[in-house]
């Protein structure tokens, strides 16, 4: 192992674990709201790996490379925008069909149109 | 000693993520997600990225957790879920996800040497911008076009949310239920917003030289506005209201105008010499108002009542 | 001088951590919501207050110390409001 056993390595490993857990929740959990939470978990894991790159780029008197930090800030805001749109779609799906999972509807369903 | 703390933090993150993924009911998993946001902010502080820690606490787990909790209370359905993967499919998906995690962990463990960094270049030109915080310099000066497009993405998401209302309700106000607002909430709605506005302005102003910035301050402003709306002290604005729409587009428009004016100085979003700091401050003030209104309307949701 | 300051910090922060531990154990072990709120309020007010008190000698300036106390007051304000809201909801549920 060529890396020092420090905060960056440990948090980077936990970030990679979060990526796997988030992706698994997105794919396998039946409820859509939990899938959205899993999407946020996946995002958090990816941002942590970015943070490791920022910490390792500490140089020239700075505590961390500022460019990955700015990218992560942008990513957090865009992830929130995507979550808000997904939540609005989920609420509309629930209003129209009464269920919050992605099971296929019977052919004569969605009679609750508004 | 601090390695022990980091090890505890990293393992708590993984354990809490497992809980969030496999909790039995949705509300527990969302509350666990908010707690995970707190742990993530601590992790970002350990990685010496305070701006990101502030943004994660404010937007990543604060406003997102609020949105998820509100959605969960309106989604109480008892219908059993029909479609679920079998054991064999779940195991193979689990193995593939573990493989992805292992690949990313390999990248974390075997980094390039020397570590690639843009810190010297970021610090080299920072005196010209007049800022003291290199992250703000990257956001508002070096990669200002990313911030502009990020703001436009927020507006696009809001347009998407607004378009999910039925035809008869178009232009109306979102529904924020104030069913007999209790007195403690009204008290909080009266006492906290002045303090919150002060903190938001402080976050914006100090972001030039220390961790802070327009997004963190905008999230605090949005939270204060939402608190006033939830406690019934402020009316929920209609989506067709001109004031709301002016505030929403004010930030990106001023940013765009500054960008096109910069074409006269050489490139889109170029700042003229000596005017960088004042221009950045003007853009940030317009941006914080716009972000606050956008975040507030994103949480409020699509229109649920007719206009007028 | 710094030794005295460090000693105050260690004692106060440890005491605050003990209160937080007691609050967390109360949250897990108490039978109903009202008693859990009682345990949590001890953690919020006294635990956080002791930790802030312990961090005050380490603050760089008077302004930083005032910010710490301000954070403690804000945490108390929101904790008190939330406890009252939860207790009112419980009272409405049980019909008392």
Structure description:
The complex is a heterotrimer of chains A (about 110), B (about 300) and C (about 100). Chain A has helices at about 5-30, 30-55, 65-95. Chain A is mostly helical and about 110 residues long. Chain A has a single domain (about 5-95), classed as Helix Hairpins (Orthogonal Bundle). In chain A, helix 1 (about 5-30) packs antiparallel against helix 2 and helix 2 (about 30-55) packs antiparallel against helix 3 (about 65-95). The model of chain A has no long low-confidence stretch (mean pLDDT about 85). Chain B is an all-alpha fold and about 300 residues long. Chain B folds into two domains: about 1-75; about 115-308, no CATH class. Chain B is globular and about 65 Å long. With about 100 residues, chain C is an all-alpha fold. Chain C has one domain. Helix content of chain C is about 90%, strand content about 0%. Chain C contains three helices and no strands. Chain C has helices spanning about 1-30, 35-55, 60-95. In chain C, helix 1 packs antiparallel against helix 2 (about 35-55) and helix 2 runs antiparallel to helix 3 (about 60-95). The N and C termini of chain C lie far apart (about 55 Å). Classes of the chains: A mainly alpha (about 110), B mainly alpha (about 300), C mainly alpha (about 100). Chains A and B meet through helix 1, helix 2 and helix 3 of A and helix 1, helix 2, helix 3, helix 4 and helix 5 of B.
